[in-house]
Amino acid sequence: MKAPRSGAPWFKRPLKNTSVVDGEPVRFTVKVTGEPKPQVTWWFEGEMLQDSEDYQYIERGETYCLYLPETFPEDEGEYMCKAVNNRGTSASTCILTIESKS
Asked: Chain-centre distance of CA 10, in angstroms?
């Protein structure tokens, strides 16, 4: 897959479904490109997550991460990364599964 010529955001590395043990940290990572540089936001079950202690936005070049230092059963569900610039919008989604401590 090649990036669109339009400059619209494009996920070079989309989100992957992931599972984590209750209480453990989790990191979602994408690589997204676009011209101009896209604005990246993270969503959980359709609600935008604010960059905070519980949901940390990390950005390094084209790599964007959402880091949860601790997970709870209620963190299970669909996460989405949305990238927007004036040429378009792109999104990637995944499911987080929380496994109970054995």
From this structure: 13
